[in-house]
Amino acid sequence: MLQRIAPIALALLTAPVFAQDAYPSRPIVMVVPFPPGGVADLTGRPTAITMEKFLKQRIIVENKAGAGGAIGMAATANSKPDGYTIMMALSSISIIPPAERLFDRKPAYEMSQLVPIALISADPTVLVVRADSPWKTVQDFVEDARRRPGKINYSSSGIYGTLHMAMEIFASAADIKLFHIPYQGGGPAVSALLGSQVEALASGPSAVIGQIKGGKLRALASWGDRRLASLPDVPTFKELGYNAEFYIWSGLFAPAGTPAPVLQTLRNAARQAVDDPDFKNAMAKIETPVYYLDAPEFQKFWDKDAKVLADAVKRVGKVEDKK
């Protein structure tokens, strides 16, 4: 009898251990460090929904906005590295630490506290104004800005956020002075423009394409190296003679120290997600091209982009919040 009971007892003792090792065994939180309606949110939600299919667990999108994304990024960087907290971040992830150091402040997080899972999309920003604005072209905009230095205002997702940096790079290239009004994310920044609280905005195409096609906003130029397929009539700053190039990319990250097998599971799910027809359709609806890179290639891409942005932060210098 004892011989028969012993294997059963051993099985009962070891079963919970194997259950605990299974990943994922409960819902995952995907932090979006911006409010709903911005590029990270619009990309994060279809990514989460599609990855659920392959992980067999729910992924809860949690918007943790504030400080140009620093609050949500810091929360992710300092969370438990167990695979149950991941983040859909933008290129601003590389801007915040060097910007904080300009002011001799300790950054809320360091990039070394985060590891890449996959790059999901990359798009150049576009300069948009309301359709009823007096500026029909970039030349109109620049000439007016030179006549009235610091009088044309624009919204952004926050100080040193992606949208702020794009406008500062353009302003520097055009030798004009604009007035910056930061908001708590890309969504509120677009709403501010639509609500006539500001006069211009640099935005990811996905957040404004509907308003452009609906006749409420006008795109003057893009920061890409070539024209956007979704906006073929909109010139790039480069072809207009301005040395201004900037991209908003969306990528998945996890806290550093997340176990390699867990990261591999997340990488596999991300790879399967970007190939899924439902995901492709969701991204097509917001006219955002998928630009997928697995973790090793994404790390190289991130390192190169981070250096470009750190150099841009130094070139822009200290910019105080005027709001």
How would you summarize what this structure contains?
The chain is an alpha/beta fold and 323 residues long. Helices cover 43% and strands 20% of the residues.
Q: Can you offer a commentary on this structure?
A:
- Helices cover 43% and strands 20% of the residues.
- The protein contains eleven helices and eleven strands.
- Helix 2 (39-55) packs across helix 9 (260-274) and helix 2 (39-55) runs antiparallel to helix 10 (277-285).
- The chain starts with a helix and ends in a 7-residue tail after the last helix.
- 46% of the residues are buried.
Number of helices: 11
Order of helices and strands: HEHEHEHEEHEHEHEHEEHHEH
| Low-pLDDT ranges | 8-19
Radius of gyration: 22 Å
The percent of residues in helical segments reads 40-55%
Q: Give the overall pLDDT as a whole number.
A: 90
Largest sheet: 6 strands, mixed
Order of neighbouring strands in the sheet with most strands? 2-1-3-10-4-11
Estimate what percentage of residues fall within beta strands. Answer: 15-25%
The assigned structural class equals alpha/beta
Strand count: 11
The geometry reads as: globular
Measured distance between first and last alpha carbons: 79 Å
